Amino acid sequence: MIQIIFLLSLFLSISNASVQDFCVADIKGSDTPSGYPCKPASTVTSDDFAFEGLIAPGNITNIINAAVTPAFVAQFPAVNGLGLSAARLDLGPAGVIPLHTHPGASELLVVTQGHITAGFVSSANTVYIKTLKKGELMVFPQGLLHFQATAGKRNAVAFAVFSSASPGLQILDFALFASNFSTPLITKTTFLDPVLVKKLKSILGGSG
Ligand SMILES: *[C@@H]1O[C@H](CO)[C@@H](O)[C@H](O)[C@H]1NC(C)=O
Ligand SMILES: *[C@@H]1O[C@H](CO)[C@@H](O)[C@H](O)[C@H]1NC(C)=O
């Protein structure tokens, strides 16, 4: 008798447990620390869970000879609330993804073509650098400054997976020299030469 009551209560608790399996983002809503609001489940289809946006190489005709194509929640709404996302990196022979951080995520990089020299600087100012070949992985802990650059003379491709649907991306040189951070204050806060600051601003489009 006790067993029957136990089984019955177990059954009732399982049938009442409503797990929300997914929350495909309604990106017309606004992003919050806990993600976007959900699209109604009745309108979600298989297509929501697949993403074609990383098939094509990014355009590397630019100053860094490289491209980062994101599959973050804004591009791939199905990752909303799942604590992960992805990106594709295309690097030309002179390609570099300049020093940058993802304030919201750790990164796992998988090289799928060519060779990439990548590294990060820890909070203790220790530098960790590896040259990676096809099939190799490297991790970049959350928030730390890191970079990727082509090693050798051939194009390289890598895919990155992030531990957040919204990893964020802040590129150090763009923050300094493509913004309206004033030259006197950059000089004061970085100890860089004002001539160099102005030169980099003219290249990257900064003002102030
Ligand atoms: C790549 O970007 C360059 C510079 O913006 C542009 O001139 C070129 O048309 C683009 N190529 C493709 C295939 O979109
Ligand atoms: C930089 O530009 C933004 C947007 O135009 C403005 O809100 C901000 O106050 C500016 N910052 C400085 C330091 O001029």
UniProtKB/TrEMBL annotation:
Q: What is its main location?
A: secreted
Signal peptide as annotated in the record: 1-17
The subcellular localization recorded is: Secreted, Extracellular space, Apoplast
Its taxonomic path starts at: Eukaryota, Viridiplantae, Streptophyta, Embryophyta, Tracheophyta
Disulfide-bonded cysteine pairs: these are 23-38
Among InterPro entries, the record links this protein to: Cupin_1, Germin, Germin_Mn-BS, RmlC-like_jellyroll, RmlC_Cupin_sf
Q: What is this protein called?
A: Germin-like protein
Note whether Manganese occurs among the keywords: yes
Organism the protein comes from: Medicago truncatula
Q: Which residues form the Cupin type-1 domain?
A: 52-198
Q: Which family does it belong to?
A: Belongs to the germin family.
Per the record, its GO cellular-component terms are: apoplast; extracellular matrix
Record's keyword terms, sorted: Apoplast, Disulfide bond, Glycoprotein, Manganese, Metal-binding, Receptor, Secreted, Signal
Q: In which residues is Mn(2+) bound?
A: 100, 102, 107, 146
Query: Which is one GO molecular function term here?
Result: receptor tyrosine kinase binding
Name the positions where oxalate binds.
102, 107
